[in-house]
């Protein structure tokens, strides 16, 4: 197998029509420059040189497999490390349709992977249910009015998911802060009970 370090060769892409046109153009130039008196030797040499130069212009470098897979081949999956998109960590359904990895953009997959809790989001228009088997997203788009309302909130699936994930991150941060506050109250209460006060009083009396 070719390695990434090998010197790239070239691959000629000129076709027969281009080659014929190149030869005809070269012959005309030679005859015009020598007033039709060009020798066969000089004519052949000039044609050979011109054809070689023309083919070089129409050639493209041949890359190794390692170089090829590092190229970006899709605007949907721009990360060369994941040419088919990053892994979808769990199954997902959007309005009853299973989200297929090959049909999702990298952004959509990453946002789906970040859905962390059940709730209603985007002005309660979207319901998210996170379960052991996967995540389900539901919103009403059965009528023109519903679709117009949805379109006023998001234009793409990625935008909708971004709104949901942002709201979830806020909720998670608020819950973490509340939990830490409760823990701090417990620690303060533990240090302020009767036994603790008596122990401090004895220690201070000494």
List keywords for this structure.
two-stranded antiparallel ribbon, 206 residues, five-stranded mixed sheet, 7 helices
General description of the model:
The protein is 51% helix and 14% strand. It is built from seven helices and seven strands, in the order βααβαββαβββααα. The strands form two sheets. It has a five-stranded mixed β-sheet, covered by helices on one side. It has a two-stranded antiparallel ribbon with strand order 1-2. The N terminus is likely disordered. Among the domains are: 61 residues, no CATH class; 81 residues, no CATH class. The chain is of the alpha+beta class and 206 residues long. Helix 1 crosses helix 2 and helix 4 packs parallel to helix 6.
What is the global morphology? elongated
Low-confidence stretches: 1-9
**Mean pLDDT across all amino acids:** 79
Secondary structure tally: strands: 7
The helix count comes to 7
Q: How much helix is in the residues?
A: 40-55%
Strand content: 5-15%
Largest sheet: 5 strands, mixed
Strand order of the largest sheet: 4-3-7-6-5
Elements, N to C (H/E): EHHEHEEHEEEHHH
What gyration radius follows from the Cα positions, in whole Å?
35 Å
| Spatial separation of the terminal alpha carbons | 83 Å
- Helix/strand class: alpha+beta
Q: How is this structure best summarized?
A:
The protein has 206 residues and is an alpha+beta fold. It contains 7 helices and 7 strands, in the order βααβαββαβββααα. The chain has helices at 16-33, 40-57, 65-69, 106-114, 144-153, 157-190, 194-205; strands at residues 9-12, 59-62, 92-94, 97-98, 119-121, 126-131, 134-139.
């Amino acid at each position: 197998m070719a390695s990434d370090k090998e010197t790239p060769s070239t691959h000629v892409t000129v076709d027969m029509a281009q080659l014929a046109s190149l030869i005809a153009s070269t012959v005309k130039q030679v005859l015009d420059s020598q007033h039709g008196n060009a020798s066969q030797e000089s004519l052949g040499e000039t044609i050979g040189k011109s054809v070689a130069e023309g083919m070089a212009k129409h050639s493209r470098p041949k890359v190794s497999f390692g170089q090829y897979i590092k190229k970006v081949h899709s605007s949907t999956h721009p990360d060369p490390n994941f040419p088919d998109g990053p892994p979808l960590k769990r199954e997902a359904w959007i309005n009853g349709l299973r989200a297929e990895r090959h049909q999702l953009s990298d952004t959509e997959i990453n946002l789906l992977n970040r859905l962390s809790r059940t709730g209603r989001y985007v002005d309660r228009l979207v319901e998210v249910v996170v379960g052991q088997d996967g995540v389900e997203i539901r919103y009403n788009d059965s009528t023109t009015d519903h679709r117009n309302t949805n379109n006023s909130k998001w234009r793409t699936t990625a935008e909708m998911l971004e709104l949901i994930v942002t709201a979830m991150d806020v909720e998670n941060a608020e819950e973490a802060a509340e939990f830490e506050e409760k823990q701090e109250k417990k620690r303060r209460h533990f240090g302020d009970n009767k036994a603790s006060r008596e122990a401090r009083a004895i220690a201070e009396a000494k």
